[in-house]
Design brief:
- By secondary structure, the protein is an alpha+beta fold.
- It contains five helices and 13 strands.
- The strands form three sheets. It has a six-stranded mixed sheet with strand order 8-12-13-11-10-9. Strands 1-2-4-3 form a four-stranded antiparallel sheet, covered by helices on one side. The protein has a three-stranded antiparallel sheet with strand order 5-6-7, with no helix packed on it.
- A hairpin with a 5-residue loop joins strand 6 and strand 7.
- Helix 3 packs across helix 4.
- Bound molecules: zinc ion.
- Zinc ion binds next to loops.
Length: about 200
């Protein structure tokens, strides 16, 4: 004899499984940050780390390294010493997700970081692929601490902005290059600097 209660329970469980299945879209929460005094607060730091399923200390270390500053984790927030433009923080988080989270084979985020010998690998649970975590070229290049308006620089475009401009993150700057695609090498003249954002004119 079937127990109606048990059937109900079974139904309930199967619908739960459906809802929490892997059809859920992967969206990294948008960084909520603001400048407070001489610091910059990333309000939803913990939420971002949890969503990308990475160690909070690992993400924090990356952010500090890219911003070239010191700071601390404060409960669910991250506090950076210094004033940083929000687009810069967003760009750094995007780079982190591209390098340390997204599988380059299948584009899914179901990955984990594993150490093989002394090489850090990104291993994908979805497709079984793995790759060494790439070191961004920009980091190896000499980073000019202070860009100057009127100066000329050689760049390799790293990503695309929402408006479709090429973007390069260099030191504390985000440099926008019109009509340039990721991977493209360009020579530009810095035409205007506003905070940590630099606008350019293509020379080549
Ligand atoms: Zn994969």
């Amino acid at each position: 004899m079937t127990n109606p209660y048990e059937n109900l329970l079974k139904k309930a469980y199967s619908s739960i499984t459906e809802v929490s299945g892997d059809s859920e879209r992967f969206v990294v929460p948008e960084a909520k940050a603001y400048i407070e005094g001489k610091t910059t607060i990333l309000e939803n730091f913990a939420e971002i780390a949890d969503k990308v399923r990475r160690d909070r200390d690992h993400l924090m270390k990356y952010l500090l390294g890219e911003l070239g500053t010191s700071g601390k984790i404060d409960a669910n927030r991250a506090i950076f010493n210094g004033k940083f433009e929000i687009p810069l923080i967003k760009a750094i988080i995007k780079n982190y997700v591209d390098d340390y989270v997204i599988c380059s084979e299948c584009g899914r985020p179901d990955t984990r970081l594993v150490k093989d010998d002394r090489i850090l690998l990104l291993r994908c649970d979805a497709c079984g692929g793995h790759r060494p975590v790439k070191k961004r070229k920009a980091r190896a290049e000499p980073v000019s601490e202070n860009l100057e308006e009127g100066s000329e620089v050689d760049l390799e475009i790293q990503s695309l902005s929402r408006r479709g401009d090429g973007v390069v993150k260099m030191g504390r700057y985000i440099i926008y290059v019109a009509n340039a695609k990721p991977g493209q090498k360009v020579r530009v003249k810095i035409t205007r600097i506003s905070g940590s954002i630099a606008f350019t004119e293509r020379l080549q």
